[in-house]
Every structure is written in structure tokens, then in C-alpha cells.
Amino acid sequence: MRVPILGTAAGIERYLLELGTITEFPDRAGVTRRLYTEAWQKAQIMIYELMCAAGLEAWMDEVGNVHGRLQGSSDQTILTGSHFDTVVDGGAYDGAYGIIAGIVALSELKARQVPLHRSLEVVAFSEEEGSRFPLTCWGSRALVGKIDTEAMLLCDSQGISLNDAMRSVGLNPSRAHPRRSYDYQGFVELHVEQGSQLEERRKPIGIVGTIFGQERWIVRVRGESAHAGTTRMARRHDALVAASEMVMAVYRLSQNNEAHAIATVGLLQVHHGTANCVPGHVTFTVDLRSAHDEIRRNLALQLRQDFKESGIRHGVEVVAEKHTDTAAVSMSSHLQHLTRDVAENLELDTLFLDSRAGHDAQILGREMPAGMIFVPSHQGISHHAREFTSARDLANGERVLRNVLERAANNRYSEDGGG
Ligand code: GLV
Ligand code: MN
Ligand code: MN
């Protein structure tokens, strides 16, 4: 592994695209790296080697997060980083960018022998997306000691438990509560926007105000499987027809509330479905988000009522189980202002915006001041093979991150001032 071409746009892009070749399905477009798979482990090792090659003190923790540290004169530490898992057939930039740019930023500060009071640490989080197990932000939750041992029993779609998946990559599930090794005082996450606001307004840098809260459900609809030719309409308990009404209820709720909330059904399965049977068992997911937790709670109640009514209409049983609930979080106003100052000094225009995507900063932001810096996503495309950010935008983000980290490491640092 060669050391990155520090500070150059091509260097960040090259390492990002190289990481993007590590995928569960090399014959498909896009990147798939679900937690604790072989591809995930290969990526973990590549990141570790890159951190070592960049001259950082590197280690892997108990849940597979990879840390790269640049020691300052104090153990007080400012964190940066993002996640290296992906959705199925996702893009090469989501998560990976914050890790690669974080490594480049720290190695650049090291190469220039910039004096640091606080230490800096880049963390590659093991999981954020929830693409394998019904959980999200596993890596960042573990870092701050916010994971639940019951999670070990959760299973993926193949029936493999989190416990067994951890063992398969050499981790010991009974040690899945990483100690906080240092005094973590703040977190700055650099990420692609995943929307189109920056590109449309021609702003190279976004500064996040609030990250939307989100919840995810698994909904099980049980009707009665029956013969497709002989079962009269009045006698059917069609789980798929009922579920389709519920999908439309989610869609309408989203349409009617788009200014402040959004909801999606991303996965629907007809169990043992065959062409000549009335479907008896369907499961589907709901992802519901809002910047206001109160609004989200009310919309969730409304959806549950809609689901209940569909269930009654079609004579099917509906069980909606919420497995994730992450509150909306405001980013530190100090870090927002610091980022704007830094960007202005670099003559980069900024836009303040909210994030409708979930991020590790949402978890860490409840434990310490957190900030998020966005760079443009071409046409706002994300969670897709065509996700793209230009090398120039990637490099701009790294410069802003590097300067924010340097100032956060050296300045008086608190929620209400400094900087
Ligand atoms: C992750 O990308 C999410 O927004 O759910
Ligand atoms: Mn994502
Ligand atoms: Mn992400």
C-alpha cells in the first residue's frame, strides 16, 4: 500500500475508488459491503493499512471499527471519520469519503508537522447503514457504549446471528463494548451531500444544521394462502393486497408532509409466493424520518392507524415492530461557525442545510459537540452505483476538514465560543 498523494485531488479520488472495488458482488455495478462479510473485512484491512502507511497509530477495536490516531500534546481528542459498510449496490463515496479524506487530512497535518494541542483520531466505523441486520450505526453506537447486548441475537435475512457474524471475522461478541480509550471532545464528519442542494446552488461546501431523526419498522402481514383460481374474492385474506394499501399509505403520508418528513418502503417480501396462490404472508419495511421527533411520532401513530384499518378491511393480522429509533440531532453551533470561517478563509462558498440522510454524527452528536461538512453529490444521486463527486469537490472538502480539525485541536473549544 503506497502512501496517499497527500493533498492532491487525484490522491483522494484514487484511494476512494480503490476502496470501492472491494465489494461482495464484483460482477454488479455499485458497491456492496455489508457488516462482517468477507468484502467488509477486506475493506477493513485496506483502511488499516492505509492508516499505517499514512503514519498514523492504527488499531481495530472490538466491533471492527478502525482507528488512526495523530497524538497531540494532550489526550483530549477530536474525532473525524465515517462508515465503511454500504447499502446493497450502493456508491463508492457514501461513508468511504469521510474516512479517506480523514486519513489524508491527518497525514497531511503530520507531514507538515503542524503542532497540535488536542489529539486527532480518524475512525472508520464498522456499520451505519442497517443493510445486513435490523440495526443502524452499530460502529458509532459501540464507540460511545450505547449498544445493547440483546442485539447479538439479531439475525440477517439468511438467519445468521450478529453473534455468529462477529465470530466469522475473528471478533469476540462478549467484548463488543469498546472502552472509550481517550477523552473524546468532538466529532467532525465529512460526507457527500446525497442530495442536490449544493450542486443546484453552486456551493462547494455544505454545513449541516440538523440531522433528521429516523425510525425503521418491520411489518408482518399474515392473511391466508389460498388457491388462486378457486378462492372467491369475498373469502380471500390476501396479505399482499393489504400490504399494498399500506405501502400506498406510506407513500401518501410522505407526499403530504414532504416539507418536514419523509417515509419509504424499501423492501417487501411475499413469503412462499407463487403465481397460483393468494399470498398469505408478506413482510415489508418502513423508514420514517423528520427533523422534528414530535412530528415523526404523530406521523407514526397515523400510519399505525392506517395499517390497522387495512388489516381489518382484508381480514389479515398486522404486526408493525419498530427496531430502530434515532432522534433528530442539532449539530454544534460552534463547529458550524468554525466551518464557515474556515471555508471563507479558503474562499469556498457555504450553504447551511439539514441532512435527511442518517449519519454517525447523529449518534456521536448526543455525546459530544458534532459537526458535519458536506460536498456536492452529482445530481443528488446516492445509494446507487452512479453516486459521484468530482475530484475537485472531494479535495475542497478535505481542505476544509483539515483546517477545522487543526483549529478544533488548538483553540479554546466549547459549545458557546472559542475558535
Ligand atoms: C443512511 O445513509 C441513511 O440515511 O439511512
Ligand atoms: Mn448511506
Ligand atoms: Mn453515509
Automatic annotation (TrEMBL):
Keyword Hydrolase in annotation: yes
Residues holding allantoate: 216, 276, 289
Cofactor, free-text remark: Binds 2 Zn(2+) ions per subunit.
UniProt: Zn(2+) 2 binding residues: 94, 129, 383
Cofactors (names): Zn(2+)
One function term, GO molecular function aspect: hydrolase activity, acting on carbon-nitrogen (but not peptide) bonds, in linear amidines
SUPFAM superfamilies given in the database record: Bacterial exopeptidase dimerisation domain, Zn-dependent exopeptidases
Binding sites annotated in the UniProt record for Zn(2+) 1: 83, 94, 191
Keyword vocabulary terms for this entry: Hydrolase, Metal-binding, Zinc
Entry-linked InterPro entries: Amidase_Cbmase (IPR010158), Bact_exopeptidase_dim_dom (IPR036264), Peptidase_M20 (IPR002933)
Family statement: Belongs to the peptidase M20 family.
Name this protein carries in UniProt: Allantoate amidohydrolase
Native source organism of the sequence: Sulfobacillus benefaciens
